[in-house]
């Protein structure tokens, strides 16, 4: 796609932290929507490694996950010719604008962020300033690109509201500078829950690997995880099973993989033993993920191809980000850098 064509499209921006393993919940809740929207929007899809270091990371693991996540974006169907895909730290304007926005974000606003409270409890030995000011970096990610739409789930809605407040505050203080982004809330869809704790959302960062379905799990691992998935004391599937967290979650996953309504799935398995559903669900998972995993293996094996895409994406992102950052610096009174 030419730069002129890209400029004509509204911008949709999203990103995932390279922590843990991309899971089925990430695909259903985010990546599938990215693929469906890429014809109508210029998608800016980021591997947000700068956000990831608010929690201590092993350097080699972080580098490997960044490349793996980018390859999985592509394997899911993101077209690099129609979108911009890059690693956050490759575009220094994210950090530069983040500092400016820190100066337009109030302590009281940061104190209300529920994610800071939650992560502080889970990482009590490392409550750092980056964890506290994380929302200002997220605001910079979004505002740098004059983003129109940001897909949000329940856990990020509060951060997007703060981003909008910061943008409006800056615009009102100076003059219109940032586009105020709108949330993109997909039509209500399936919510994939933990396999062992089905009252909690499936998380890619879960320390118990039996709780999530990784997009890269080999067939034997997928079958084992489904076999061990928590259900309840009943043995047969009934219409009421949809309302039981454990077995209801497995029925939901089957419905997603086979593009069926929950009611149709419940009818199909009514009167069947739980073991029958688990067996067919495992087969469906293996079949569903096989083409994704084949594409991923090819992409991750062609390091030069992946690096070229990320370099191209970072270059496009820097071009867009520089335009916004230059405008911001001029408005707040920074002296323009001389040419050298």
Search tags:
Tyrosyl-Transfer RNA Synthetase, globular, mainly alpha, 340 residues, 2 domains
Q: Could you give a short description of this structure?
A:
The chain is mainly alpha-helical.
Largest sheet: 3 strands, parallel
CATH architectural grouping of the largest domain? 3-Layer(aba) Sandwich
Helical fraction: 55-70%
The assigned structural class equals mainly alpha
Domain count: the total is: 2
Task: Walk me through the topology.
Elements: H1 3-8, E1 11-16, H2 24-37, E2 42-47, H3 49-52, H4 59-76, E3 84-87, H5 93-102, H6 107-111, H7 114-122, H8 129-143, E4 149-151, H9 157-173, E5 182-184, H10 219-228, H11 245-258, H12 262-269, H13 274-301, H14 303-332
Parallel strand pairs: 1-2, 2-3, 4-5
Helix pairs in contact: 4-13, 5-8, 5-14, 8-9, 10-13, 11-12, 11-13
Can you offer a commentary on this structure?
There is one protein chain. The chain has about 350 residues and is mostly helical. The chain has two domains: about 5-185 and about 300-330, HUPs (Rossmann fold), CATH 3.40.50; about 210-295, Tyrosyl-Transfer RNA Synthetase (Orthogonal Bundle), CATH 1.10.240. Helix content is about 55%, strand content about 5%. The strands form two sheets. A three-stranded parallel β-sheet has the order 1-2-3. Strands 4-5 form a two-stranded parallel ribbon. Strand 1 (about 10-15), helix 2 (about 25-35) and strand 2 form a beta-alpha-beta unit. Helix 8 crosses helix 9 (about 155-175) and helix 11 packs across helix 13. The longest helix has 30 residues, at about 305-330. The two termini are about 35 Å apart.
């Amino acid at each position: 796609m030419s730069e002129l064509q890209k400029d004509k499209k509204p911008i949709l921006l999203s990103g995932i932290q390279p922590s843990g393993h991309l899971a089925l919940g990430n695909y259903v809740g985010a990546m599938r929507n990215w693929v469906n929207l890429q014809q109508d929007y210029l998608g800016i899809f980021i591997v947000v490694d700068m956000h990831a270091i608010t929690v201590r990371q092993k350097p080699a693991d972080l580098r490997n996950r960044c490349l793996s996540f980018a390859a999985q974006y592509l394997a899911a169907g993101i077209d690099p010719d129609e979108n911009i895909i890059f690693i956050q730290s490759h575009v220094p304007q994210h950090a530069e604008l983040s500092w400016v926005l820190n100066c337009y974000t109030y302590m009281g606003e940061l104190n209300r962020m529920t994610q800071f409270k939650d992560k502080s409890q889970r990482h009590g030995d490392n409550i750092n300033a980056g964890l506290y000011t994380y929302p200002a970096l997220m605001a910079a990610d979004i505002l740098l690109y004059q983003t129109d739409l940001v897909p949000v789930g329940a856990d990020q809605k509060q951060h997007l509201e703060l981003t909008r407040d910061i943008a409006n505050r800056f615009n009102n203080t100076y003059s219109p500078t940032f586009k105020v982004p709108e949330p993109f809330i997909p039509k209500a869809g399936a919510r994939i829950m933990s396999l062992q704790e089905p009252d909690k959302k499936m998380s890619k960062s879960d320390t118990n690997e039996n709780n999530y379905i990784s997009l890269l799990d080999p067939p034997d691992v997928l079958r084992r995880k489904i076999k061990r998935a928590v259900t309840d004391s009943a043995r047969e599937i009934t219409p009421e099973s949809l309302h039981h967290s454990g077995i209801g979650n497995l029925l939901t996953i089957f419905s997603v993989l086979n593009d069926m309504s929950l009611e149709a799935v419940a009818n199909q398995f009514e009167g069947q033993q739980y073991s029958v559903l688990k067996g067919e669900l495992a087969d469906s998972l293996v079949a569903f993920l096989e083409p994704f995993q084949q594409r991923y293996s090819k992409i991750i094996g062609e390091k030069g191809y992946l690096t070229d895409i990320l370099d191209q994406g970072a270059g496009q992102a820097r071009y867009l980000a520089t335009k916004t950052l230059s405008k911001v610096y001029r408005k707040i009174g920074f002296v323009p850098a001389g040419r050298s």
